[in-house]
Specification:
It is a single chain. The protein is an alpha+beta fold. Helix content is 61%, strand content 18%. The chain contains 8 helices and 6 strands. The strands form 2 sheets. A 4-stranded antiparallel sheet has the order 4-5-3-6, covered by helices on one side. The chain has a two-stranded antiparallel sheet with strand order 1-2. A hairpin with a 4-residue loop joins β4 and β5. The longest helix has 43 residues, at 42-84. It is elongated. Keywords: Cell inner membrane, Cell membrane, Membrane, Transmembrane, Transmembrane helix. It is a multi-pass membrane protein. The chain crosses the membrane at residues 12-30, 42-62, 68-88, 100-130.
Length: 238
C-alpha cells in the first residue's frame, strides 16, 4: 500500500512535534485574545497556527526546504485575506487591525513550528504576547498625553451645505478659496441631502494644518452665495 511504503516513523514524529508546538503556542496567543473578547479568539488562532504548521511541514517532507520556502510565501500572502475579514470600518474609525496582525503572527508561529524551528516558534510567541499585553500600559499612557493639533498628522475635510441649485457652481468656488488659503484640495464630492439641500465635501491634501487659518478659511466659505453652513473635520492618519 502507498501509505505503508511512504510511512516513515521519524517524519511522523517530527510532524507530531510540529503540530503540538503550533497548537500550544496558538493556544497561548489565542487565550489572551479570547480573554479580551476579540473577534479572532482562541480557536481561530490555534487553527491558523496548526494550519500553517501542517502546510509547511508537508512541504518540508515532500519537497525539502526549498518547497517549504515556497509554501511559507503562500501562507504569508494567504493569511492576509483571513485577516482582512476581521477589519471593520465604523465611520472614521477602523477596528480589528491588531486582531488581524495577531492572526498574521499566529501563522508565523505555526510556520516556524512546521519548519522544525521550535525555539523560534516559542520565542515569537513570547514576543506576540508581550506586544499584546506589556505594551498596553504604554499605549494607554501615550493616548492620554495632550496633543497639538497643528503638529499631529491627520486628514482634514471641509463640508459646505448649500441649496441644490447653487451646489454645482460652488464646487469650483470652494476649491478656489481653499487653494488661495494654501489648503490644496485633493477632491470635492457632491452629495444630495434628504432635506433637499446639497453637501460639498472637500478633502484637503495637507496632513497638518494651523487650526486658526483653517477656521478663517471656513468662515469665508460661509459668506459665499447660496451657502447655509460650513465646517471642517479631522480624522487621524492610520
Amino acid at each position: 500500500m502507498p501509505f505503508i511504503e511512504s510511512f516513515e516513523a521519524g517524519d511522523f514524529v517530527s510532524t507530531i512535534i510540529s503540530l503540538v508546538v503550533a497548537f500550544a503556542m496558538g493556544t497561548l496567543i489565542g487565550a489572551e485574545r479570547q480573554y479580551r473578547q476579540r473577534t479572532a479568539g482562541l480557536r481561530t488562532n490555534v487553527l491558523v497556527a496548526i494550519g500553517a504548521a501542517q502546510f509547511v511541514d508537508m512541504a518540508m517532507h515532500l519537497a525539502g526546504p526549498e518547497g517549504a520556502v515556497r509554501v511559507v510565501a503562500y501562507v504569508v500572502s494567504g493569511i492576509g485575506f483571513l485577516g482582512a475579514g476581521v477589519i471593520m470600518k465604523e465611520g472614521t474609525n477602523i477596528r480589528g487591525l491588531n486582531t488581524a496582525a495577531t492572526l498574521w503572527c499566529s501563522a508565523a508561529v505555526g510556520a516556524c513550528a512546521g519548519a522544525d524551528l521550535i525555539a523560534q516558534s516559542v520565542l515569537l510567541t513570547l514576543f506576540v504576547l508581550a506586544g499584546n499585553t506589556m505594551l498596553r500600559p504604554l499605549v494607554t499612557a501615550l493616548e492620554r498625553l495632550p496633543r497639538d493639533d497643528e503638529s499631529t498628522e491627520a486628514t482634514y475635510g471641509v463640508s459646505v451645505i448649500s441649496s441644490a441649485s447653487a451646489a454645482d457652481g460652488l464646487r469650483a468656488e470652494v476649491a478656489k478659496l481653499l487653494e488661495a488659503a494654501k489648503f490644496p484640495v485633493e477632491d470635492v464630492e457632491l452629495q444630495d441631502r434628504a432635506d433637499g439641500s446639497a453637501e460639498l465635501h472637500a478633502t484637503l491634501v495637507n496632513t497638518s494644518v494651523r487650526v486658526a487659518e483653517l477656521d478663517a478659511a471656513v468662515a469665508r466659505l460661509r459668506h459665499l452665495p447660496g451657502v447655509t453652513a460650513a465646517n471642517w473635520t479631522r480624522s487621524a492618519v492610520d
